[in-house]
Amino acid sequence: MKLTDQFRFVRQNMKKNRTRVFMTILATAMGCAFLIVLASVGFGLQKSVVKEITERRVITQIDVHGKETKEQGMYRPLNDKDIQIFEEVKDVKSVTRRKMLQQEGTYSIGKYQEGAPTFVTNFPAEIKAGFELSDGRLPKSKDEVAVGYNFLTNLADKDAGDDLYDEKGQAKAEYLYKGELLGKEIKLTIRQFKAEKQIEKTIPLKVVGISKKPTKEWAQDSSVFISDQMLTEIERFTETPKGYMLDANSTKVPEDLEINKKTYDEVKIYAKNMEAVQSISDQLKEKNYATYSVVNELKEVNMVFMIAKAGLIFIGTIAILIASIGIYNTMTMAVTERAPDIGIMKAIGASPKTIKRIFLLESSYIGLIGALIGTVVSYGISYTVNFAIPLIIKQAFGQETDLNLIFSDIPLILPIICIVICYGVTIISGLRPAQRATKVDVLKAMRREV
C-alpha cells in the first residue's frame, strides 16, 4: 500500500467522523494556544526588562571600579598606568576617565546660581566613546568649560527662597535663567575652611560648549567639565587634593584621598561591539580589576526568565496532555469502527507495520492541524493583549503606565517548541490504539466482532 494511498485512506476516514475529529482538533488547538500564550508572557516581560536595561545603559560600556590589592577584598583607585593597560586590551574602543571636584561647585550668572557636579575629563577619549556637543566647541584653554545639556534646568534666582521649587521639587519657570548660555561668563565659587573660618574664591569661566541632549528624559546632565589646569588652580587655593573641603574643626585631609590624589574617580571602558564586552571583562577580571557591565546584569536577568519560561512551558504542556486524552479516545473509537476495514487490509496482504502507520498518520494529522490552528490563534491573542491591556490600565488608573511593557511576545522558537511537543504527545496518544489495530483478528473483523 503506497504512502499516498495511506494518506487518502486517513482523510476519507476523518471525513466520516467530522464532528468527533473537529472537537479533538479544537481541544488540541486550545491546548497549544494556551501553551504559547502562557509562555509568551515570560518572553514578553523578558524582552521589556532587557530593553529597559539596555536603553538605560550603553550596551558596550564596562565600568571599572578599582584593582584588588594584596589585601584580599580591598581595592585601590585607578591611575594612568591602569588606563594604559586598558587601552592595550584587544577590541577596546575608548577608555574614559574623570576626576571629580571633591566639593559641589557653585556656578552663577548674575543673581542666578546652582550647584553642579564638576569633572576633569579627557575629551579625545570621550569623543571616541560617543560624547557629542549640541552647540559650541570643546574647551581649549584653562578658563573655558563645557556644560551638560540640562545645566540650565536648575540655574535659578538665588533670592527666590522657599518659593523656588514646586510640588514636584523642580525649580519654577519664573525663577529660571532664560538668557543665552553659550559664550557667557559664569563664575565658579569654591570654598575652604582656614583657621576655623570659611573663605571663598570666585573663578570666572567661559561656556564654550553644551553637550548633546540625553536620549532619555530621566537622564539629566548638568555636569560642568573644567580643565586639568583649572583643577590645579583650585587645589592651590584649597590646599587639598581635588579641591576637598575640610571640616570647620579639622585641618587634616583623609589619608586615602591624600594617597590617591592622582587617581581617577570614574573610569569606563567602551568595547568596539557588544560581542567583545564579555571577553574584555574576563581579561580584566584575570588581572584582578573589579568590573561591571550591562552584560553581567543581562546574564542574571536571562537566567531568571529562562527558569520562568521553562515553568510556563511545562504548565502549558499539561493542557496539551489533557487534549491528548481526546486524541486517544478518538483513535480508540476509530479502531473499533474500522475493524472491517482493518480485516480487509489484512486479508489482501497489508502488513501490521502499514496498519500501524495509518493510525499514527491520523493521530499526527489531528495533532499538527490542532497545533497550527492554536499557533495562529495565539498570535491573535498576543496582539490583542498588547493592544488592550495598556488601554485597560489607562481606564482603570486614569493614566498611562510609565513602563513600556511588552505583555506578550511570541518568538519563532515558541511555536516550534509547541508543535514539537504536540506532535510528540499525539504520537504517544495514538500509539496504543495503533498497536491494538495490528492485533485485530481478520475473521472476527469480517464478522464485525471486534
Percent range of helical residues: 40-55%
Number of helices: 12
End-to-end Cα distance, whole Å, is 23 Å
> How would you characterize the largest beta sheet?
14 strands, mixed
Strand content: 15-25%
Radius of gyration: 36 Å
Spans of at least 5 consecutive residues whose pLDDT stays below 50 are none
Query: Judging from the principal axes of the Cα atoms, what is the shape?
Result: elongated
Arithmetic mean pLDDT: 84
The secondary-structure element order is HHEEHEEEEHEEEEEEHHEHEHHHHH
Quantity of strands, as a count = 14
Total domains, how many? 2
> What would you call the structural class?
alpha+beta
Structure characteristics:
14 strands; 450 residues; elongated; alpha+beta; 14-stranded mixed sheet; 2 domains
Summarize the structure.
Helices cover 50% and strands 18% of the residues. With 450 residues, it is of the alpha+beta class.
Please describe what this structure looks like.
Strands 1, 2, 3, 4, 5, 6, 7, 8, 9, 10, 11, 12, 13 and 14 form a 14-stranded mixed β-sheet that branches. The longest helix is centred in the last third of the chain and has 46 residues, at 352-397. The chain is of the alpha+beta class and 450 residues long. Strand 4 (105-109) and strand 5 (112-116) form a beta hairpin. The chain has helices at residues 3-16, 18-56, 80-87, 123-129, 228-238, 255-259, 275-286, 294-337, 339-347, 352-397, 413-438, 442-446; strands at 61-68, 75-76, 92-100, 105-109, 112-116, 118-121, 133-136, 144-147, 156-157, 185-194, 197-211, 224-226, 266-271, 289-293. It has two domains: 3-56 and 301-446, no CATH class; 61-272, no CATH class.
